[in-house]
Amino acid sequence: MTGTAITTIRNLGPSVEEALHRAGIPDAETLRDLGAHEAYRRMLKSGTHPHFIGYYVLHMALQGRPWNDCKGKEKDALRQQFDSLKTKTTADPLSRIEKELVAIGVIPKGFKD
After folding, report:
1. 89: pLDDT confidence band, cut at 50, 70 and 90?
2. 51-52-54-60 Cα dihedral, nearest 10 degrees
């Protein structure tokens, strides 16, 4: 049974959905169960380049809030969490190689061994 598309969550478009799929998060239900922090950790492990805006947008989206609603102390706290996560998390070595192999057509998109 296929779950709900991630793009049904406000402010999460196709590129975020694709990054979440690469991270092993297939649908909105799984994303909600994991939460924004763990989902972003998995995205980093799968080769997503860290970017604070993407991190807090994911948090706002899962709360049903506008992407730019994060301000003040809340934003400062999320920045500290992001910086800590970024420091502790590195991409799996093959994730970038696999991305390049998909881009040049050596392996099919979505291939998992």
Report:
1. confident
2. 170
